[in-house]
Amino acid sequence: MRKKIGLIGGGNIGATLAHLILQRNLGDVVLVDIAEGVTQGKALDLYQAAAIDDLNGHIVGTQDYSALKGADAVVVTAGVPRKPGMSRDDLLQINSQIIKEIGQQIRQHCPKAFVVVVTNPLDAMVWLMQKSSGLPTHQVVGMAGILDSGRFRHFLAVALGVAVQDVKTFVLGGHGDNMVALPRHTTVAGIPLQTWIDQGKLSSQQLDDMIKRTQNGGAEIVNLMKTGSAYYAPASAALQMVEAYLFDEKRILPCAAFLNGEYGVKDIYAGVPVMIGAGGAEKVIELDLNAVEKQQFEASVSSVQKLVDDLKALGF
Ligand code: APR
C-alpha cells in the first residue's frame, strides 16, 4: 500500500517537499493550501515533471482538508514567513491562529498521522499544534534542529576543508537566536572537534564566528532574499524526519520534541536529540551537558516558555 503524505502549506517549503517526495517515490502527496488554484497548478506542474522523469507518483492540490483522510504523515508549513528585520517571534500572532485551525483539521481527518511542524516561531507552534490537534505528544514534532545543525555542519566543513558527511553535531534548544550549538558534542570523522582545534586546524575565534552565523543562519538568508525565507534546507530537514518515521529508521535527530522532565524541563517543546521511528518521537536522548551548556539550554528554553506564555495569554 502506498504511503500518503499530506503537506499543509503549498508555498516554497511545501512545494519543494512535494517535489522531493515525488522524486524519491516515497508516496502520494496531498498539497493543501488556502490560496485558490496555487496547489492545483503546482500539482499539475509536478505531474508533468514526473512524466519527464519517468516517475509514477500521485499528487493532489486542494483547499479541502478532507483530502488528508488516512494520511500517514503530515508536514505543516502553512503560515507567513519572515521579512527582513523580523524575528521568528514576530510571526507569533498571525501564525498561531493558522496553526490552531490546522490542528483541528488534522484531528478530524488524519488523527493517526505523524505530524511535523515547520511554521515559525517553531517551538511555540509545535506546542500549539499538539494542543489544538489533541494528538499524542510522540506523534507531533517540530523541525528545527536538523536545519540548524545542517547550517553549522556546512560552515565547519568549509572551514576545515572536509566532506560535510563527516561532520556530526547537534544544535539544541529553541529555534531562535539563542539556540545552543554544542562544539563539545561535535565530531569530524569521529574525532572530537576540540582535537582539530588543538591541532591548529580551526581557531576558537573561527568557531565562535560559525556559531553566531548558525544562530543567525535564517536571518542571513532572509536579508539576502528579501521576499521570503530559506526553503531548500528546511524541506530537506523535514523530509529526513518523515523518512525516519515511514521507514522506522530509529534515527537520532535533533528535533523539537515534547519534554516531560528530560533535561530538567517539563510540559514544553524544545530541540533535543530524539529517536524517530514507527512510533514517532520514540525517545528523547539526554546528552551530558556541562554547566555552561546547561545554562545556555535553559536560557533558550525560557525564550520558548515566554512565547508559550504569550500564547496562553492570547487565549490559546
Ligand atoms: N491554511 C493553509 N495554508 C495557508 C494558510 C492556511 N490558513 N495560511 C497561509 N497558508 C499558505 C500560504 O498560502 C502559502 O502558500 O502557507 C504557504 C506558506 O508558504 P510561503 O509563504 O512560501 O512560506 P515558506 O517559505 O514555505 O515557509 C512557511 O515555514 O520556515 C517557516 O517561517 C517560515 O512560517 C514560515 C513557514
TrEMBL record:
Enzymatic reactions: (S)-malate + NAD(+) = oxaloacetate + NADH + H(+)
GO BP terms in the entry: lactate metabolic process; tricarboxylic acid cycle
NAD in keyword set: yes
Active site (catalytic residues): H175
Residues annotated as domain Lactate/malate dehydrogenase N-terminal: 4-142
Enzyme Commission code(s) on record: 1.1.1.37
Gene3D superfamilies tied to this protein: Lactate dehydrogenase/glycoside hydrolase, family 4, C-terminal (3.90.110.10), NAD(P)-binding Rossmann-like Domain (3.40.50.720)
Residue sites binding NAD(+) per the record: G9, G10, G11, N12, I13, G14, D33, N95, V118, T119, N120
Record-level Gene Ontology MF annotations: L-lactate dehydrogenase (NAD+) activity; L-malate dehydrogenase (NAD+) activity
Ligand binding (substrate): R82, R88, N120, R151
Keywords: NAD, Oxidoreductase, Tricarboxylic acid cycle
Lactate/malate dehydrogenase C-terminal domain residues: 147-310
Domain of life the protein comes from: Bacteria
CDD domains attached to this UniProt entry: LDH-like_MDH (cd01339)
Classification via Pfam families: Ldh_1_C, Ldh_1_N
Role summary: Catalyzes the reversible oxidation of malate to oxaloacetate.
Stated family: Belongs to the LDH/MDH superfamily. MDH type 3 family.
NCBIfam families the UniProt entry points to: MalateDH_bact, PRK06223.1
Descriptive protein name: Malate dehydrogenase
Protein source organism: Candidatus Finniella inopinata
